[in-house]
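Exercise 7. Given the encoded structure of a 136-residue chain, write a plausible sequence.
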């Protein structure tokens, strides 16, 4: 079993799509090991996305991620990291495959409904950033 970190982003929560996304997570075979609704502060968003601090979209990204509540998740499944990335689809909803979460719930590259870790090291950092060991 492998664990990965996922976020249902503020755009999807605001649009009332979190329940549908959670249902799709369950039907895709993931086990939710931890889940929390949280409104990130700007500082929390900046810390989480610190790897992108030098990029031109950093301010816009952290503004968006601190604009409303999101759902933070620890997902578990065999090959969870790749499985979650496949379930989400491409970053740009217009380029995402039919039936993926970003295709079905995202509206733009910036408002693409979900986030997921891209590697085991990233998953370890992201899970540790939001969940204490006892929560997992």
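Solution.
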């Amino acid at each position: 079993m492998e664990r990965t970190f996922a976020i249902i982003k503020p755009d999807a929560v605001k649009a009332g799509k979190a329940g549908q996304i959670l249902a799709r997570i369950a039907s895709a075979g993931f086990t939710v090991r931890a889940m929390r609704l949280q409104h990130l502060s700007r500082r929390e968003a900046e810390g989480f996305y610190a790897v992108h601090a030098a990029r031109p979209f950093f301010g816009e990204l952290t503004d968006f991620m601190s604009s409303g509540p999101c759902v933070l998740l620890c997902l578990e499944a065999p090959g969870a990291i790749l499985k979650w990335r496949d379930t989400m689809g491409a970053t740009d909803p217009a380029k995402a495959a039919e039936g993926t979460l970003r295709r079905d719930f995202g509206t733009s590259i910036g408002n693409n409904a979900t986030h997921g870790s891209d590697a085991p090291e990233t998953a370890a950092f992201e899970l540790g950033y939001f969940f204490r060991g006892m929560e997992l």
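Remark. The chain has a mean pLDDT of 95. Students should compare their own answers with the one above.
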